[in-house]
Write a structure and sequence with these properties.
This protein is mostly beta strands. The chain contains three helices and 19 strands. The chain has helices at about 5-10, 15-20, 30-45; strands at about 45-50, 55-60, 60-65, 75-80, 95, 100-105, 110-115, 120, 135-140, 145-150, 150-155, 160-165, 175-180, 185-190, 195, 200-205, 210-220, 220-225, 230-235. Helix 1 (about 5-10) packs across helix 2. It is globular. The relative contact order is 0.08.
Length: about 240
């Protein structure tokens, strides 16, 4: 099979990406702008580090490099969402803790590996609701908290999987997650910053911007970054 035949046959992954780059578009200026963004998405993917191992998405494939390796190892995980010019709006989410790797794909699938990417388990059928976009993933051992466009999910690697709500049972949409001293924090667009207490979200800050891009916590201080390159901090006193 020639490369062109392979690209025509595959509707996803690296081969289809190159097919999209060669496609003709009626609006040349807009198409070139979108293609440049798609190009950046393919070759400037997310990365994460666990112990002496680095994981990085490149050309819509996930690769691994360990200390002493002479080349990157293809983990076999490849993007299966349809590749189109709107794809730059979605990012693959990657989180690592020791040998455990969680991946939230652009097509709404959640996968986990407990052996550094040698084998993968698809957790999507166990999720309590369908997901279109993964926003953030925090891993603690083999367990994970996952922020999505439909709410927060807790999973212990697939054995249990449930929605994390506030005390009223509201399924909050968190934009970013952070942890300090084994306590999980999250920030929403509309209702502020929350802390996970006894398995439920408790609001601790009510007035925050709606364009938060990052969240960090240390002691009594919470930092948030915004899309306007601002950094704000809040002091929490019990």
């Amino acid at each position: 099979m020639t490369y062109k035949e392979e690209a025509d046959e595959n509707a996803f992954g690296a081969a289809h990406f190159f097919k999209k780059l060669n496609q003709e578009y009626p609006d040349k200026y807009t198409a070139q702008h979108q293609i440049n963004k798609l190009f950046d998405t393919a070759f400037w993917g997310p990365f994460a580090v666990g112990n002496d191992t680095i994981y990085m998405e490149y050309n819509f494939k996930l690769f691994r490099w360990m200390t002493g390796d002479k080349e990157w190892y293809d983990t076999g995980l490849e993007e299966t969402a349809e590749i189109n010019l709107n794809m730059p709006k979605k990012k693959l989410k990657l989180a690592v803790s020791e040998n455990t790797v969680y991946v939230g794909k652009r097509d709404g699938h959640l996968l986990v590996s407990f052996d550094r990417g040698n084998n993968w388990i698809d957790l999507t059928p166990t999720l309590p609701f369908s997901v279109k976009t993964f926003k953030d993933i925090f891993v603690d051992g083999s367990s994970a908290y996952i922020a999505t466009d439909s709410g927060i999910i807790y999973t212990d690697g697939g054995r249990r999987c449930h929605t994390v709500t506030d005390t009223a049972g509201t399924n909050l949409i968190m934009e970013r997650l952070a942890i300090d001293d084994s306590v999980l924090y999250g920030v929403t667009k509309q209702s502020g910053i929350y802390r996970l207490e006894n398995g439920s979200w408790q609001q601790i800050v009510s007035n925050t911007p709606d364009n938060v891009t990052s969240l960090a916590v240390t002691g009594e201080t919470i930092y948030i970054g915004t899309a306007h390159n601002e950094v704000l901090h809040y002091t929490i006193r019990e």
